[in-house]
Write the structure tokens for this entry.
Amino acid sequence: MRLILGGAGFIGSAMTRTLHNPVVYDALTYAGRRENLTDVEHVFVKGDILDIRFLETVIEEYRPEVVFNFAAQTHVDRSIADPQPFIQTNVQGTVNILELARRHHFRYVHVSTDEVYGEQEADEASPLRPSSPYSASKASADMFVLAYVRTYGVDAFIVRPSNNYGPRQFPEKLIPKSLLRMLAGKEVPIYGDGKQVRDWIHVEDTARIIASLADKGEAGRVYNIPGGQLATNIEIVSAIAEIAGVEPKLKFVAD
Ligand SMILES: NC(=O)c1ccc[n+]([C@@H]2O[C@H](COP(=O)([O-])OP(=O)(O)OC[C@H]3O[C@@H](n4cnc5c(N)ncnc54)[C@H](O)[C@@H]3O)[C@@H](O)[C@H]2O)c1
């Protein structure tokens, strides 16, 4: 049995489609939606990873061999406005899962992000240079994962995907937000000069790669998941406008 924490969100719901009838545990925050899972077989449990007692009862009931963690606060701008929920869910939530992995001996697949490396070109050995409360909370959680492997022998590893695109992403993120605003005839905000280069990967590719790593991944290792598709934010927005057949009204705002 496989347990997907945060399985009602963007990447978690793609993961739910990749596995056979998993259990999904999700607090259904503003970013998580039951409708993301309407067409896929799964068992749903509404719960918070911060509620370690309830999460433990779910683990005792379903006895997962593998637990995937997609439950997180994920929006950089929100983390700048208020870091606390990021520290809670992303750091304390991860430590809760690690504690349960210690007690119940499941394999833990920890989903991090390439944003922990900052702007540099990075491989898995690169230093961590988080530049927002969001990426700092993700980097902190990663350190706890590695510490629990080393200290307690927990069977866990880390994946660090790059920017994901595809269906069911909450429309606060670049692609769905730009598309919806364009279609509504509204201005599309571009941070800075829009020339920041990002690496993009389709969400189904990320889910497939994480599923295959669930069997092959080695405890204590980090696996970057790049898509190999580089584009500036301006290029992404222009491509969306071309496909949508609209002339976008760009608004440059401070990064
Ligand atoms: N989207 C990307 O481009 C991207 C890239 C790299 C890494 N990641 C990482 O992948 C993971 C998933 O990202 P996403 O884009 O699918 O996020 P998302 O915001 O779409 O979904 C997060 C999910 O977690 C749930 N959740 C939030 N707090 C919770 C809590 N305390 N307890 C239980 N459930 C909770 C939400 O309800 C939601 O369903 C995150 O760890 C993120 O850092 C995302």
User: Anything to note?
Assistant: The chain has a mean pLDDT of 97.
